[in-house]
Each structure stands twice: as C-alpha cells, then as structure tokens.
Specification:
This protein is mainly alpha-helical. It is built from twelve helices and five strands. Bound molecules: zinc ion.
Amino acid sequence: MKIHLQVLNKLWFVLILIVAGGCSTVPLTGRRQLSLVPESEVISLSLTEYDKFIKSNKLSTDKNKIALVKHVGERISKAVEAYMAGAGLSQNLDGYKWEFNLVEDQTVNAWCMSGGKVVVYTGLLPLTLTESGLATVLGHEISHAVARHGSERMSDQMLIQFGSTALSTALDQKPAATKNIVMTAFGIGSQVGLILPFSRENEYEADYMGLIFMAMAGYDPNESIPFWERMSRQGGQKPPEFLSTHPVDANRISRLKEKMPDALAYYKKTKK
Ligand SMILES: [Zn+2]
C-alpha cells in the first residue's frame, strides 16, 4: 500500500507539472519534452559543479591543443547561436556563457553542461584525430545541452530518488545525491563513480543536431562517420567512458548516414 501511495504521489507530481506548463520543445527536431526542473535552475546547479570540477582537475598546458579545442568549440557555438537567433529561439540560450577547456586526463570523454560549459579530456584527442572529428564530438555534446537533455535526465532522476520533493528541498536535505544527479545528467560519470548513458532517443537526437550544427559551422558532416567507426572499434573489456555513455551500434551509424543529405545541404551553403 505504501508503494502504491508513492507511485500515486509521483503521478500527481508529474500531472501537476504538465498542467503547470512543465513542457518545452527541442530546437531543430521540434520534439516536445517534459521538463520538470526549470532550465535556469539546471544552469545554476551546473555552474556550481563546473567550478568545482575545474578547480579540482588539471587543465592542459599544451597551447596548440587548447587552441584547437577553443577554435572548434567557438565555431560550433557560433553556428548554434546563429541558428537559434534565426529561429527566434535566442531566449533558449539565456544564461549561456560558452567556455571550452582541455583537461589533462587520459579518460576518453567530453561533455557540455547547461550554460555552455564544455570540457574535453586529453584522452579523447587521439580518437577525434582531426579537427572535424573533434567538431563531431563538440557538435554532439553541445546539442545535448541545447536540447536540454540534462534537464530531462535530472527530471527522471529527481522523480526516482525524491518523488514529489521539490528540487530546492532535495538540495538542502540531500546535497550529495543532488550533486550525483547533476553530474550523471551531463555524462560526468567517473567523477561520482556512476556511469549513466543518455537514452537512445536522446543520443540519436544529439547525433542529428550535432551533424547539422557541425555542417552549419562549415565542417564536412561526412567526417563524423569515420569518427564513430573509430569509436566502435574501442570496445572490449574496459570500454572508454565516452563509449559507455555513447554506445556505437550499427543503427547509430546508419541513422547518421540517413541524415547526411540534410546536413550536406547546410554544409554546401557555408561554402558558397
Ligand atoms: Zn551523447
């Protein structure tokens, strides 16, 4: 009976939020999504965890590699901003202040938190290999943030862990659990010993959006295929963290190829 009451509580919580307007639309794809946690709150939580991360990790001192990460990141983020402005969605990027960091760490990973805070690990660079390879990853990660997938995951996790407790109450009462939710929501698993993949739907959506944004930024979207193929060969006993959160199956690559004509149309426009 107690379990039933908890489930009912959660259902009521979701219903109230839906009625209260807890819904938003993903740019480019137009998908409607449930967002129980306000984006401004997600950005504020992200900034707190991001600052702690930057203070407790070693930033790379390799000038060339740092310049590469910033250069690619800036090109992609400018393309995102231009698209959002053209679509009348600039307000979706309220609170965004882009930052691109290279962290000295052999983990194969990269992420972008809400608010535009991007981290690439040096361990990823041998796999991205080229500037377009890195554009593939950054386009994909930035898309997770712009599509508010972190908020979606946080909404799910909040429901699982706290039921109908409001986020602010959860923060006061269970700061450690809340921190874990924020970190896992953005694929920063190893920091909290928890690796949680994005849902397949979110992955495909970030692939599609990332492909379009890299093309809008003037990178050949065809270059994303060899990157994902390199990734798919990295399996084995202990797959890299990026692969744990981004499993590369045959579907992933074939779906990317399906979307290629759309992306190439945007790419060609940048070359005129
Ligand atoms: Zn992803």
